[in-house]
Amino acid sequence: METKQNDELQKEAIRKICEERNITELVHFTHIDNLSSILYLGLMTREELDESGITYRITDDKRLDGYPEAVSLSISFPNYKMFHNKSYGQKEKWVVLSLFPKILWEFDCAFFPDNAARSNLRRTPIKQLKTVESFMDLFSEKDNKRSSDLPSYYPTNPQAEVLVFNNIPSFYIREIYFCDDGTRDEWCRSLSGGQWELIEDIGFIFTGNKKYFLPREDYSNW
Predict the structure, then answer these.
(1) What residues make up the domain containing 120?
(2) Within a domain: 178
(3) pLDDT (average), residues 130-151
(4) pLDDT, mean of residues 146-170
(5) What is the enclosing helix (H) or strand (E) of 120?
(6) I want to staple 23 with a disulfide (CB 3.0 to 4.6 A). Which of 18, 32, 39, 219 is the partner?
(7) Is residue 7 part of a domain?
(8) CA separation for the pair 138, 161 (Å, rounded)
(9) What is the DSSP letter of 99?
């Protein structure tokens, strides 16, 4: 009973922090070829995808964080360093998914203040990264690394990430960002009538928004 109460208190604390910092979205970038299946099946862990036999394009073939049983998300803005490397010269082949922030307190999440593949974080027991304190560390102002004009809803380090140890159903997706309106329109036209009707019924929003395909405004600090 006490453990359950502590879990509920932690979830409520994370929810309040999100409210105070005006965190309205989590994001995940993926190849555009994966988009249709994600809208039907949700975001699935690498482990689940491989076991199910679903065909997909791999975003991170090495997965050095060592957690194939988790989905990687960023808070408010993509990890642009990794995204740039993956999408260089072909932005139109990628999309950024915007998801509801309630994932942070409704799912089993671990919070990494830097890229989860960093050696020091790989050595950190995962339990230590699933606390309110570890979530707050994402916004640390220690060592003067956080820019004074950085919006409150951005983690300090642009490579900070959240690992979600569950599949994430598609109804947690709030919007899909394409690099521009033309790419969005072309993708929509590529769908068959039945596919489009089903996706339209679910109510996804498709937007051309190049902001998420560019570096974060404090890129010069990193």
Answers:
(1) 2-142+149-213
(2) yes
(3) 91
(4) 95
(5) helix 119-122
(6) 18
(7) yes
(8) 8
(9) E
